[in-house]
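Q: C-alpha cells for this one, please.
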Amino acid sequence: MKTILLSITALFIGVAAYAQNCVADFSITNVGNSFTFNFTGNQPTNASIYWNIAGQNYTGTTVTATIPGPSMDFVSCQVTLIDSVNNLFCSDSKLDTLFIPGSTNNYCMADFDLLQDSTSINDYYLINQSTYSSNLQYVMWDFGDGTATNDPYPSHNYANVGTYVISLFIYTDSCWSIATDTLEVTSKSTGTWVYVIDEASLATQAVGNFVELKLYPNPSKGIDMNLSFSAQVASDIQVSIYSVTGSSVHNQTLTSKIGRNDLRLPTHQLSKGMYFVEITDFKGNKETLRFVVE
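A: Here is the predicted structure, written as C-alpha cells:
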C-alpha cells in the first residue's frame, strides 16, 4: 500500500511541474514583410524553444523572417523540457494567425455593416462592403466565439450570452485588410443568428415586363405571400426563393396576364428567417426582393 501511495504522490508532483514550468507566449513585430518573433513566455533551464513560421522551422528565443505576401498564414511556438535525469518534463505551445502584407501600391479595405432585423431582435445581418483594386483571393469571417470560416456568405448561431467581436479578413493578390464590429448577445433561450448577405442580392434591377412590383405581407407570419405587379405582355415567369445561405427552397413557373397580376407564393411552409425571391421574366430579366418569415 505504501508503494502505491508513493507512486500517486510522484505522479501529482510531475503533473504540477508540467503545469507550472513551461509557458509558451510570444510577441510579433514587423516592418513590411520583415517579421521579428520574440519569446515572452516561461522557459525553464535547459528547455528548448521551437517555432514553425509560415511552414518553416526555427529555434531560439528570437527569430527574424522575411515572408512574401499578401497572405494569411500561421505561427506556432513550443517550449519543451525533457530532463530524464532529474525527472523534469513539461511542454506548452501557442498558435497564432499571421497576416502578411503585400504591395503598398494597391488598395483593399475590408468593411461590413452589422444590421439587426427589424422584426426579429435575435437575428442580425452582415453585409460585406469591402473594396479592393485587385483580384480577391480569400475571405474569412471570425465570429469571436472560436468559430471561423472562409465561406463568403455563412450563417452562425450564438448559443450563449456575451459580447463577441466579429472580424472580416480579406486579402487580394496585392494586399490584405481586416474589419471588426461588436455584437452583444442578450438572449440564450432562443439563440442569436447572424447571416452574411451578398450586397448584390439586395439590389433592385429594372425589369422590362414588370411595373409596380410588390411582395406582401412582409414580414409573413406563417401564411402565403402575394406577388403583385403590372405586366405589359402575357407570359410565363419563373419565381425562385432562396435562403440567406443561397440554398434554393422553392421554384415555380407562374403565368402572368396583361395588366395587374396578383400571384400567391406558398411561403407558409418556410421556416422562420430571411429569404430572397428572384423573379425572371420571359426575356430573362431578373429582380430580387427580400422578405422575412416570422
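A few notes: Residues 1-19, 202-207 have pLDDT under 50 and may be disordered. The radius of gyration is 28 Å.
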